Amino acid sequence: MSDLLIHSSKPDTRGRVISVTPESAHWHYVGFEVFHLTGGQELSEITGLNELCLVILSGKAEISINQKSFGVLGDRNHVFEGLPWSVYAPCQSTFKVKAVTDLELAICKAPAKQALEPRVIAPTDIAQETRGQGTNIRYVRNILPDTSPYAEALLVVEVITPGGHWSSYPPHKHDTDNYPHETYLEETYYHRLNPPSGFGFQRVYTDDGTLDESMAIRDGDVVLVPKGFHPVAAPHGFDLYYLNVMAGPKKSWKFTMSKDHSHIGWTSTPAR
Q1: In b/e form, how buried is each residue of 123-154, taking b as 16+ CB within 10 angstroms?
Q2: How far is CA 27 from CA 23, 103, 132, 160, in A?
Q3: d(CA 107, CA 159)
Q4: Domain range spanning residue 47?
Q5: What domain count does the chain have?
Q6: pLDDT digits over 11-64, tens only?
């Protein structure tokens, strides 16, 4: 199995099914976890030197930051239903989550120095766009885009790719610290499938061939993108969801397109 592909496990004593740290990924910035909590189960943590984005993937939860409660959040049964509720937790703070129902929660992490204000990111705060053309169309939900003032380092986005379509395509990369032309951003993809019995594909590769991994992705898998191009394919009959987390030395999403795919072009329009 590729070192870039991580399968979900059974919940540990805290309910965690996915754990990616900078140490385990052999990089510097992005951390990512997924928890499956049962109703009434609680989770708390000190953020330390990281800022966090808590994304409610499904279910309902009561979330507080530094003992300030934001009430009960979450209103979708699965990731293919509507938009998410999220909460931003700054560095040097403490969060607490209590599952009101069965809960799937993603925790996105990146190093930060500024203690920004904690806040709820409601579905109405999320900018949506349709990206691509033809069988390249997918639907993007920007939770924490690079233009957001509410995070120091984190970029967080959800994408729905219909069955039979490509995503993160045409292939692009962001592995060189050469602002404003390109920025270095590590990235994780958390994949879900509808129906969950299917599979998808993701390739992570560089022009020089030093990295070239093609992976069959299952429901609940995470793919690490330390560098290179990283297109995704959803087979006919299976819609694909992924949650992206990106972070690097500069919070800006500047990428380079694959020269082999320059004839395709990159299009993006706001969703209605």
Answers
A1: eebbeebebbeeebebbbbbbbbbebebbbbb
A2: 7, 29, 30, 27
A3: 17
A4: 5-270
A5: 1
A6: 999 999 999 999 999 999 999 999 999 999 999 999 999 999 999 999 999 999
